[in-house]
Design brief:
It is built from ten helices and no strands. The chain is mainly α. It has one domain.
């Protein structure tokens, strides 16, 4: 996979970076934790071919475009149809109806800011667009929070690769444990929210 990512960036430049980030949002197994650090390293090693800000902009554009692809099925197909589709075909994208349910519950607990926070969490960042669409979140706020979250994520990865240079792969190595901690914290926060709601219902 690394060779394919490298060849795409080398041959297509900014278009290749945007394309990779677009595909990464559709197929979670393709890691942005490798795409953007490698692009950042390439900008440092070959400044005549790529520059930091161009790499950053291309990554954000691709990421937001990919998020829209998940937003519209949620908006027009609805939760139940998407769940049935995920159970039938989701294995090709490594998603299931349970993943959609979890994302929907988390979105309901966090509101619009879930889109912003979700774009910063691997494993959540792809699917957070689905409940936003299901909940009929207006397009402009969705684009605003998605762009803001994507810019923060892409900027962090690009800058890390630019600074680390040829050791850009360390970004994925050290970010993976941190991502798990963040994801675990979000799950814990969601569980606490559910328990609080149940207590309130019991009191009433």
């Amino acid at each position: 996979m690394l060779e394919w990512i490298t060849n795409t960036i080398s041959s297509l430049g900014y278009v290749g970076i945007a394309l990779l980030m677009f595909v990464e949002n559709l197929f979670p197994p393709i890691p942005s934790e490798l795409i953007m650090p490698l692009a950042g390293f390439t900008a440092r090693a070959n400044p005549d071919k790529l520059n930091f800000f161009g790499v950053f902009f291309a990554g954000v554009v691709g990421s937001v475009a990919g998020a829209l692809v998940w937003y519209y099925p949620g908006k027009f197909l609805g939760e139940q149809r998407l769940k049935r589709w995920a159970d039938q075909y989701g294995k090709w994208l490594t998603i299931s109806s349970k993943d959609i349910t979890k994302a929907k519950h988390w979105f309901d607990s966090q509101g619009s800011k879930a889109v912003l926070i979700g774009r910063l969490v691997p494993g959540v960042r792809t699917l957070i667009s689905v409940p936003a669409g299901i909940s009929n979140m207006p397009l402009l706020p969705f684009l605003f929070y998605t762009t803001l979250g994507s810019a923060a994520w892409v900027g962090l990865l690009t800058y890390s690769g630019y600074v680390l240079g040829s050791q850009y792969e360390l970004v994925d190595k050290y970010l993976a444990p941190v991502s798990k901690i963040v994801l675990g914290s979000l799950v814990l926060a969601f569980v606490v929210w559910v328990l609080k709601r149940r207590r309130k219902k019991t009191r009433h």
